[in-house]
Every structure is written in C-alpha cells, then in structure tokens.
C-alpha cells in the first residue's frame, strides 16, 4: 500500500472516531481539549499499524499511547483477519494484557472501592473513615522518615473500628511496617521500587494500586498485576502538576472497556456534579481530594458523594 492509501485509511479512522476522541468539551468548567500530536517514528510497516499511528496521533494521543494503540490495531487486524476502522481496539489480547500468572498477582481488593478519599493527614483519614468513606488514602508528602512513619502509624490507628480500607501513598515500607490495608504508587515510584521490594509487598498480602495516565502506562501497570488501577487525571486538577493532559470522559470510557478485568479508580478534578458521568463509564471507584478537603462541611460532602456513587 502506498503513502496516500495509508493516509486515506488514517483519515477514515479520524472520521469514524474524531467525534469521540477529538477535541472535546465535557463540562463548562472542565474543558478537556486534546491537541493533535506529532506522529512518532514507525516501528513496523503494516498498513493497519501505520494508519492507526497517524490517526491516533491526530486524535491527540501522545507518542507512547499512539504507538501502543497502533500495535493493538495491528494485532486486532491479524486476529480478526480484517482491518475494521470502526472498531477502536478494546480487547486485552490485542494489548498483550492477557495471560498473567494469577499466582504472581497482588492481593485482590473489591471491584467497587466506592468513594475514595485521598487525604493529607492521619487526622483527615480518621475523620473521613468515621464519616463512612469506604476507601481512604494517606497522601502525606514528606522526606522526614520519622514523621512519615508516625503519620502512617497514626492513620492505621485512625481507621480502627471503622470499615474503611486504608491505602498509603508512596511510603510503602512504612505502610508494611504499620500493617496498612494497601499501598498506592505512581509510575515514577514503580521505577524505583525494584523487583525484590515488589515481591516483598506482594507476598505480604498488602493491596497494591498503581496510577496510570494512558494506554502505555496501563500496559506497564498490568505487568505487575496490581490490585487496582487508577486512571487520570480525568479532568484538570489544581492539586497536582500533571505531566499529561487531562484524559476526559471518552478516553476514560475506552480505558474502562479495556481494563475491566481490574478494579478501576477514576481520579482528577472530579467534583460532585461530575460523579454521574464518571460513574457511567463503569469505574467502581472515584477518588477525590478537594471535593472533601475543601468542602465547607466535609462530612456532609462525604455523605453526598457516597449517595452519588450509589445512585449509579
Ligand atoms: C487513587 C490515586 N490515584 C492516583 C494517585 C496519584 O499517585 P502518584 O501518581 O504517585 O502521585 P502522588 O499522589 O504521589 O503525587 C493517587 N495518589 N491516588
Ligand atoms: C493526586 C492526584 N493524582 C492525579 S490527580 C490528583 C489530585 C486529585 O485531586 P482533586 O480531586 O482535588 O482534583
Ligand atoms: Mg506517588
């Protein structure tokens, strides 16, 4: 197939999926605009791969995600023996996501983690656990090891007598020492933890959640078979400087279709009014910071957000 024919195929994909994945405005205060990206160098030469690489870049997927999608589109074409431009890849087999050894997976956690409060101190953790928030996280940012150990221990104490599942962000060793329910790490944390320490966490039975921001990171997260996968940032957030653009609802829905064999958590800029649309994508959990911590009445906000979760 020549260059013009590949371009025509790419245009056909864009025409078919542009309304879903092109520039979008999901919500007045939460515009998610995805700008076309440069096409990365091609790793292979098949027409389906080349057309998908061009199309996914035009649809705003960053290089690693366009590459991951293009490879998946090629595998889908080989598996089904046709290049179906209408079918956005969503089969785990086409992303190399099947076939992990269950014996090597991290401990399970419920698919429906529900409202997930990401909280700055043990005091907040206790407060939201007592308000009935089913999943809470201590996100205590400090390099002071003693302060971290004390805060993690206090958070573990603070959820005692409640039903809350407590995840500890970043500080995995302190979480293990204190006997927390789970640990949450980002992609950069995965880079530094190392295979031996991952094995220590896995065999301890502590649940293990991993942040992702797109297709390539989901594939990478799957390699360690975590307990859950977090997807975000869905909308713009002021709380954390993100390396990637907000993903928006259409991408979130596509990620959920692909990753439905995991418990999934949506995070980033999710305010109460956005709960129904986020929940409708099929995620079992919505994680928030400001919607709880900045609320005039955090216990009341927790009640409202839990009701929103349960409405869907
Ligand atoms: C539920 C959940 N999802 C994502 C994050 C972000 O984690 P990370 O990418 O490691 O960034 P920091 O929170 O460490 O700044 C999270 N904490 N919780
Ligand atoms: C920690 C984190 N990771 C991705 S977005 C985010 C912050 C979410 O905060 P908010 O719910 O206030 O936007
Ligand atoms: Mg982190």
From TrEMBL:
Binding site for 4-amino-2-methyl-5-(diphosphooxymethyl)pyrimidine: 137-141, 169, 211, 240
Annotated ranges, domain Thiamine phosphate synthase/TenI: 122-292
Positions contributing to Mg(2+) binding: 170, 189
Reactions mediated catalytically: 2-(2-carboxy-4-methylthiazol-5-yl)ethyl phosphate + 4-amino-2-methyl-5-(diphosphooxymethyl)pyrimidine + 2 H(+) = thiamine phosphate + CO2 + diphosphate; 2-[(2R,5Z)-2-carboxy-4-methylthiazol-5(2H)-ylidene]ethyl phosphate + 4-amino-2-methyl-5-(diphosphooxymethyl)pyrimidine + 2 H(+) = thiamine phosphate + CO2 + diphosphate; 4-methyl-5-(2-phosphooxyethyl)-thiazole + 4-amino-2-methyl-5-(diphosphooxymethyl)pyrimidine + H(+) = thiamine phosphate + diphosphate
Alphabetized UniProt keyword annotations: Magnesium, Metal-binding, Thiamine biosynthesis, Transferase
Transmembrane segments: none
UniProt xrefs under InterPro entries: Aldolase_TIM, ThiamineP_synth_sf, ThiamineP_synth_TenI, TMP_synthase
Entries under Gene3D superfamilies matching the protein: Aldolase class I (3.20.20.70)
Note describing how the cofactor binds: Binds 1 Mg(2+) ion per subunit.
Extent of the signal sequence: none
Family from the record: Belongs to the thiamine-phosphate synthase family.
Name of the protein described by the UniProt record: Thiamine-phosphate synthase
Primary gene name: thiE
């Amino acid at each position: 197939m020549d260059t013009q024919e590949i371009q025509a195929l790419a245009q056909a994909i864009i025409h078919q999926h542009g309304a879903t994945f092109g520039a979008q405005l999901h919500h007045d205060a939460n515009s998610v605009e995805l700008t076309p990206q440069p096409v990365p160098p091609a790793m292979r030469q098949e027409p389906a791969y080349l057309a998908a690489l061009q199309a996914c870049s035009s649809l705003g997927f960053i290089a690693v995600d366009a590459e991951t999608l293009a490879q998946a589109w090629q595998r889908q074409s080989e598996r089904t023996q046709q290049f179906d431009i209408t079918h956005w890849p969503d089969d785990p087999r086409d992303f190399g996501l099947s076939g992990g050894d269950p014996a090597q997976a991290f401990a399970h956690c419920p698919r429906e983690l529900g409202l997930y409060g990401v909280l700055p101190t043990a005091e907040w953790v206790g407060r939201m656990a007592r308000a009935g928030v089913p999943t809470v996280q201590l996100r205590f940012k400090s390099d002071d090891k003693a302060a971290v150990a004390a805060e993690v221990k206090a958070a573990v104490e603070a959820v005692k007598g409640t039903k809350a599942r407590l995840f500890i962000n970043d500080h995995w060793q302190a979480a293990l020492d204190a006997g927390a329910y789970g640990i949450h790490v980002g992609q950069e944390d995965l880079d530094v933890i190392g295979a031996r320490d991952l094995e220590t966490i896995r065999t301890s039975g502590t649940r293990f959640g991993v942040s992702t921001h797109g297709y390539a990171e989901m594939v990478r997260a799957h390699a360690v078979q975590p307990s859950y996968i977090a997807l975000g940032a869905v909308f713009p957030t002021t709380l954390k400087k993100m390396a990637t653009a907000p993903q928006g609802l259409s991408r979130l829905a596509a990620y959920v279709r692909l990753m439905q064999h995991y418990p999934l958590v949506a995070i980033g800029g999710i305010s109460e009014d956005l709960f129904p649309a986020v929940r409708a994508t099929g995620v079992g959990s919505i994680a928030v910071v400001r919607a709880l911590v900045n609320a005039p009445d955090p216990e009341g906000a927790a009640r409202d957000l839990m009701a929103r979760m349960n409405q869907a």
